[in-house]
C-alpha cells in the first residue's frame, strides 16, 4: 500500500522521467548471427529460448556473445544441442503468448524464458503478470512438449545507471515484485526453475546504454542456466537408472 501511494504521488514526475529516459537512451540493435542451429556432441538436447531484448542479445554484437550463443557453447561440451531463439526487443509476456500459435509445432526439451522488464515498464498488474506466466508455462509444456522451463528473474533495475531517480527506485521495486512472482511459480509448478543472476550493479558488465546486459552478464547468466539444466538431467538419469523397490 505504501509503495502504491508513493507511486501515485510521484506519477507526474515518473511520466516525465520515463519520456526523458526513452529520448536520451541509445537504442541498441539485437545481436547479429544465427538464431537456430545444431552444435556439440552427446545426447540430444532440444533448446528453445524465448523472450525480450535480453534474450535477443541486445548489448552484444553477435549471438555468440549473447545468451543463446553462450548457452549453446557451454552445453555443447555435454550434449548435441539443437536450438532455436525466438525473441525480440519490446516483447512482453502477452506478446510471446500471442506469437506461440505461429511458432511452429516443433518439440523441445528445455525452454529458457527471459520476460518481465517490458511488463514492468508497461504497467501491468502483478495478478495479470502471474496469470500470463502460468498460461505460458502451460502452453510450453502442452504445445512444445517442454520437459523443463527455466525462468529468469528480472534484472536489478534499481541499479540501472540509465534510469534517473526516483524512476529507478520505483521500477526497481516493481521488478523485485515481479521476480517474486516468478520465484513463487517456479516453486509451485512442476518442471520449472528460476535463474537469478547477481551482477551486483557492476557498470562494466552492462551494455553501453546502461540498461541491457553486456557479454560478461550473458556469460554468467548462461552458466547459471547450464548448471540448472545439467542438474536436472543428472537427476532424471539417476531416477531412470535406480532399481525398482
Automatic annotation (TrEMBL):
<feature type="domain" description="SGNH hydrolase-type esterase">
    <location>
        <begin position="49"/>
        <end position="219"/>
    </location>
</feature>
<protein>
    <recommendedName>
        <fullName>SGNH hydrolase-type esterase domain-containing protein</fullName>
    </recommendedName>
</protein>
<dbReference type="GO" id="GO:0016788">
    <property type="term" value="F:hydrolase activity, acting on ester bonds"/>
</dbReference>
<dbReference type="InterPro" id="IPR036514">
    <property type="entry name" value="SGNH_hydro_sf"/>
</dbReference>
<dbReference type="InterPro" id="IPR013830">
    <property type="entry name" value="SGNH_hydro"/>
</dbReference>
<dbReference type="Pfam" id="PF13472">
    <property type="entry name" value="Lipase_GDSL_2"/>
</dbReference>
Amino acid at each position: 500500500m505504501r509503495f502504491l501511494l508513493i507511486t501515485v504521488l510521484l506519477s507526474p514526475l515518473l511520466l516525465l522521467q520515463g519520456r526523458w529516459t526513452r529520448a536520451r537512451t541509445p537504442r541498441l540493435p539485437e545481436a547479429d548471427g544465427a538464431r537456430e542451429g545444431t552444435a556439440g556432441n552427446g545426447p540430444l538436447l532440444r533448446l528453445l529460448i524465448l523472450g525480450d531484448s535480453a534474450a535477443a542479445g541486445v548489448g552484444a554484437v553477435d549471438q555468440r556473445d549473447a545468451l543463446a550463443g553462450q548457452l549453446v557453447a557451454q552445453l555443447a561440451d555435454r550434449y548435441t544441442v539443437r536450438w532455436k531463439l525466438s525473441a525480440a526487443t519490446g516483447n512482453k509476456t502477452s506478446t510471446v503468448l500471442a506469437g506461440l500459435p505461429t511458432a511452429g509445432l516443433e518439440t523441445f526439451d528445455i525452454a529458457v524464458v527471459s520476460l518481465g522488464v517490458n511488463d514492468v515498464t508497461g504497467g501491468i498488474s502483478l495478478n495479470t503478470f502471474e496469470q500470463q506466466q502460468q498460461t505460458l508455462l502451460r502452453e510450453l509444456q502442452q504445445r512444445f512438449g517442454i520437459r523443463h522451463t527455466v525462468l529468469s528473474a528480472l534484472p536489478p533495475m534499481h541499479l540501472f545507471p540509465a534510469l534517473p531517480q526516483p524512476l529507478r527506485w520505483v521500477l526497481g521495486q516493481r521488478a523485485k515484485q515481479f521476480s517474486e512472482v516468478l520465484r513463487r511459480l517456479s516453486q509451485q509448478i512442476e518442471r520449472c526453475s528460476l535463474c537469478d543472476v547477481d551482477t551486483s550493479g557492476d557498470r562494466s558488465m552492462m551494455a553501453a546504454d546502461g540498461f541491457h546486459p553486456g557479454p560478461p552478464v550473458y556469460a554468467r547468466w548462461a552458466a547459471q542456466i547450464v548448471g540448472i539444466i545439467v542438474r536436472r538431467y543428472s537427476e532424471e538419469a539417476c531416477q531412470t537408472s535406480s532399481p525398482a523397490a
